[in-house]
Input
Amino acid sequence: MPNARKVVTRSPHRRVGFVACPWFQSHPVEYESLLERDFIQLALLEHTLTSITHQPFVIDLGDLGRYTPDFLLTGMQSTIVVEVKPSEFCFNARNGPRLIKAAQVLKDKNYRFLVATEKVIREDDRHERAAILLRHARSHIPSDISGKIVKMAANFQSGITISSLAALAEVPTSVVLALIGRRLLRITRSLRCSNETVVYSPGVNRGRL
Output
């Protein structure tokens, strides 16, 4: 499949930009809508992912034309192609047949295909909590400090609260939040954070984020 087009320039009709995530991958992830941005921020907290690519390739849909998916998520367990689209536009007369055909083509190429709408991406305002964690993740933390905190957390198989871990490591709670944002520590899928939120070592299986 050929490479996709470059992200479009700014216009009054859409919001485009980049999500920088140097702890995750060397290049930022592009987006063309606020819904795409919110999806990226959630994906960056998924512990099984190894890379996120925006508009990875173009697919020939035959009589239905050409289709460029929004994202390719490469993970340790699977590779997923994702279309991010408001629910009202997903299965209308134009998009419905194209997405169904795209799913068939991608299945033949051994890709999983996912359509992500605002009903999933913005469920229970998880995207807002993800954005907060990623803001913390961009803080500068010396590698020796982060390594020490991660090792401390690994000693608690049943988890340890954010405030207790911060006190044990003698750092502000914001440092622990930064390590959650960088996926060096993990919390439950809700992404709810308070001083009493329990954090776990990444190796502890507490359910997919």
About this structure: The radius of gyration is 19 Å.
